[in-house]
Amino acid sequence: MAYTLEGRAALITGANQGLGLEIARAYVQAGASVMLCARNAELLEQARAELAALAAPGQIVAAHAADVSQPNEVEHLVASALQQLPQLQILVNNAGVYGPKGVIEEIDWDEWVQAISINLLGSVLLCRAVLPHFKAQHYGKIVQISGGGATNPLPRLSAYAASKAAIVRFAETLAEETRDDGIDVNAIAPGALNTRLLDEVIAAGPAKVGQSFYERSVKQKAQGGTPLDKGAELAVFLAAAASDGITGKLISAVWDPWASLPEHLDELRRSDIYTLRRIVPKDRDMGWGE
Questions:
Q1: How many domains, the chain?
Q2: Taking the complete model, does pTM exceed 0.85, yes or no?
Q3: Where is 137: in which H helix or E strand?
Q4: Which tens digits make up the pLDDT trace of 178-201?
Q5: Active-site residue, 27 included
């Protein structure tokens, strides 16, 4: 099913390659104007030029290089986005890194903190910066990109795992804070992607990332992984009017029937479906504990 984003505008971080670029491409093709953000200005300009060639008359494709972990750069980024896209309704927090690879007592601490700063704090900073605008117009869509680290332990990739789980809980929390402001906040699990992050894992080798994870990564590389357009399609849906009212959820692009979720709004609002929760014994048919 195709969803239109005509008349809408989005700020997308980590948009010069990989999933971020694929989401930006899908947004432009759906009719949105976009502001692309990434740290590498040269790659960012290449991405902007590529997407501008796909844009229809009236669509804006702009770019602004920034490090999302730096508060002053985030402020300038959002100010630039609002100047060029005053109708901004969508924020996609995609910028992310794996961070250091190895057991926690041996990795470089500054690299660990930097990964948290980019993956988690960067997305929080962006949300803080756009929320006054979203609240003023009583409408907004915030899409957080999560991943396997949110729902499963990732030994030897602790910064990535911790930050991705935190991103989901932050999205759930922000969704409650903004429930009466017409703002939807959701997280996407895009699947196992063949991007530069996978190449990093393979290059690091089994001594750094563990034999099992290394072997899975090599196999994924050979088999192709989850197509990037799966996550991009879900990102379009969550930015479109069709998803209005769906908020505070972690949604899998691969496994969840997300296109039919508008039919289940009341059930989603009244339940903890698609959220992070503690498992107790009775959830596993155990006869002990609560």
A1: 1
A2: yes
A3: helix 122-137
A4: 999 999 999 999 877 667 777 877
A5: no
